[in-house]
Amino acid sequence: MNTAPSQRAGAAGSADAVAPPVRAADWYRRKRTREAMLVACFLLPSLMIFFLYRILPLGWNVILSFEYWSPLKAARFAGLDNYAEMFLEDDVFWQALTNTLIFILASPIAILLALAVALAVNSDLKGAAIYRTIIFLSYPLMSVAVGIVWRWLYDERGGFINFVLRGTGLIKEPIPFLQSFGWALPSVILADIWQVVGFYMIILLTGLQSIPQHLYEAARIDGAPASARFLRITLPMLRPSLFICAVIGILNSFTAFDLVYVMTGGGPAHATELLVTHIYNMGFGETRFDYAAALTVVQFTLLVILTFLANRAVGGNAGSVESA
Amino acid sequence: MRRRSHILRHLVMALVCALMLIPFYWVAKTAVTNENIYAYPPRILPLKPHLYNFVDVWYLIPFARYFANSVIVSLIAVAGNIVFNAAAGYALTKNFAGKRIVVLLFLSCMLIPFQATIIPAYLVSARLGVLNSYLGLALPLLSTIVCIFVFKAAFEAIPASLQQAARIDGLGELRILFRIMLPLAKPAIATNIILSFIWSWNAFLWPLIITRDVTMQTLPLGLARFLAYVEDTTGALYAFVCMVLLPGIIVFLMAQKEFIRGLTSGATKG
C-alpha cells in the first residue's frame, strides 16, 4: 500500500545523508517525521480494529445505558431508568449476578487443582510432557462441542456420570443434573473447570520454571523442610502467575457463554443464567439494546473491581509483571 | 523411597489424565454406536461399531457449507493477523512519541473481553454494512494484542545490524519488514497462525449475533442448530461433534509448542 512513498522517502534520506553537515539538523528532523509516519501507518490497521471493536464499544455501552434506544426509535435520555429497573425490578439480573459470582468464586478450586498438577508435572517425572499434553488438550477445543459432550455425560440414561454413580450404588435413581435447579450450576461449572484447568496449569508451569533453582539449593543447605520451601519460595515466586490465573478466572465468567448456551440455555428457571447470557437475551432476544448495554456496564465494572482486588491479594505488584 | 513417590505420582497423573480423556471416549463411543443410545445400562464398548452416523451428518445438515464457511473466515482472520500484527509489532520496536500510550492502550484492551462489547460491536458492524458477511465475521478477529507482542519480542531478538545493512542498501521499511524481518521470525508467525486459527475456528457468540442466513453460518453455529433441531436423540449429533473436534485436536497436536508459547508469552509478558 505505502511501498512507493516510503521508498521514495528512503532514497531522499540517503541522498541527504551525504549532503554537507550544515543540513544535518534538517535531515534529522525529516528522518524523524518519516519514521513517525511509518509507525503510524504500521499501527493504523490494528489500532482501527481495537478502536472499533474494543474502545468504542466500551464508551458506547455507557452512553446507551443512559438512553431509551431501539433500532427503530430515536434515542431519548433515560437518566438512571435502566439501572433502576435492573436493580429494583429485574429478578433475573440478581439471579444472574449471583450465578456469575459463584462462577468466579469457583475458579480458585480449578487454580488449586492446576497448581497440584503443575507441581507434579514440573518435576523430573518421566512422561511429564505426555501428561501435560493430555491435560491441556481440552482447552483449545471448540466450547460449543465441549458443551454438547458434557450434556451427554450428564444425561440421565445414556450419560457416563449417572452410569457410574448408579453402577457403584452411590445413587438409586438417576439425577437429571442439567434439568434440576440445584445441580445445574455446579454441573456447568464442573464442565468449565474441565476445559480451562489445563490453561491454568500451563500458566503455573511457566511460573514454576522461572523460579531460580539456586533458591531451592540454598534453602536445602539451610535445612528448610519441603513445606517451608513451598510456602516461602514457591508460593511467593508464583504470585504473578497466580494473578494471571485469577484474571483468567474472572474473564472466564464472560467466555463461559458458549458452554451455558449449549448445555442449559440459562435454565432451568434461570438457575444457570450468567450476566453474559442475560445480556445476550436482552440484547438479541428482546432487542432491548439500551438495557443490555446497562447490564454490560455493570458486569464490566464488576470485572474491573475483581481484577483490582485480585491484584491487591497477590501483593499489588502484578502491574509491573504485565509491562515487563 | 524416591521410587515409591514416583510411582504414586504416576498413578495420580494417570487418574487425572483418565478423567480428562473419558469425555472424549464417551462421545466417540456414542458416535459409532449402532443401537439405541438411550439404552440402560449403556455399553462401555460399542457392540458393532460402524460409521453410519457420520454419513448421516452429511444428509441431515449442510456440513460442507458450514465447514467451508469456517475455513474461509479462519483464513481471512489468519491472513489479517499475520500482516497487521507483524506491522504493529514492527512499529513497536521503534522509538516514537506516544509509544508508552500505545502500549498502555494495547494492554488495557486485553482486559476488555469481547463478550462485553457485543451490543455496540453489532451496531458498529451494522453501520459498516458488514452484517451477515465473511468480512464481518472476521473483522473483530483481524488483529490480536497478544500476537502483536509476540512479534515485537521476535523482532527485537533480530540483530539491528541486519536492518541497518538493508537500509544502506536502499530497502524501504515495508520491504525490510517483509523480506528481512518476517523470514527471520518464523516461530512468531507460527504462533500467530495457530492462535488466530483456533480463536476464529472456535468463535461462537460473534457468528451467532451477526449471521442471519444458514449459508453464512460456521461450524459452531451448525452444531448448535443441529442440537436445537434433533435434540440429543441421535448418534449423528455425536458424530458431528467428533467431526468438529478432530480438526482442532489435530491442529493442536501438530503445533502444541507454538500454541503454548503464544499463550504464555501473552500471559507473562503482556
Question: In words, what does this structure look like?
Answer:
The complex is a heterodimer of chains A (324) and B (270). Chain A is built from 16 helices and two strands. In chain A, strand 1 and strand 2 form a beta hairpin. By secondary structure, chain A is mainly alpha-helical. Helix content of chain A is 73%, strand content 3%. Chain A has a two-stranded antiparallel sheet with strand order 1-2. In chain A, helix 2 packs across helix 15 (289-313). Chain A has helices at 3-17, 24-65, 81-89, 91-105, 107-122, 128-136, 143-153, 160-167, 184-209, 213-221, 226-237, 239-255, 257-263, 275-285, 289-313, 318-322; strands spanning 67-70, 73-77. By secondary structure, chain B is an all-alpha fold. Classes of the chains: A mainly alpha (324), B mainly alpha (270). At the A-B interface, helix 1, helix 2, helix 5, helix 6 and helix 7 of A face helix 1, helix 3, helix 4, helix 5 and helix 9 of B.
How do you describe this structure in short?
The complex is a heterodimer of chains A (324) and B (270). Chain A is an all-alpha fold and 324 residues long.
Structural class category of chain A = mainly alpha
What is the global morphology of chain A? flat
List the total number of helices of chain A: 16
Q: State the order of secondary-structure elements of chain A, H for helix, E for strand.
A: HHEEHHHHHHHHHHHHHH
Biggest sheet strand line-up of chain A: 1-2
The chain pair with the largest interface is: A-B, 103 and 99 residues
CATH homologous superfamily grouping of the largest domain in chain A: MetI-like
Rounded radius of gyration of chain A (Å): 27 Å
CATH architecture of the largest domain in chain A: Orthogonal Bundle
CATH class bucket of the largest domain in chain A? Mainly Alpha
CATH class of the largest domain in chain B: Mainly Alpha
| Rounded Rg of chain B | 23 Å
Number of strands of chain A: 2
CATH architecture of the largest domain in chain B, by name, is Orthogonal Bundle
User: How many structural domains in the coordinates of chain B?
Assistant: 2
Give the N-terminus to C-terminus distance of chain A in angstroms.
Answer: 34 Å
Terminal Cα separation of chain B, in Å? 42 Å
CATH topology of the largest domain in chain A: MetI-like fold
Uncertain regions spanning at least 5 consecutive residues of chain A: 1-16, 319-324
